[in-house]
Amino acid sequence: MLDIQSMISAKRITCIKKLLEDYSSPWKTILDKLLLPVGGRFVLHCNFHTSKLKINLPAYYKECFDARPELNGKTPSCYKEIINEIIRNNKFLCHDKKSIYRRDLVNLGFMKIRDLISANNSFSYDTSSLINPEQRFFLMSIINSIPTEWRSLIKASIEITIADPIPSVPTIQMASGNVAPMLDLTPKQIYQTFKQQKQIAPTAKQKLSNKYSSIEIEWEKVYTLAFPCTLNTKIREFQYKILNCILFTNEKLNSVGVVESPNCTFSREAKGSVEHLLFFCKITTTVFGNTSCPG
Ligand SMILES: [Zn+2]
Question: 271: CA distance to ligand 1 center in Å?
Answer without folding.
Answer: 8
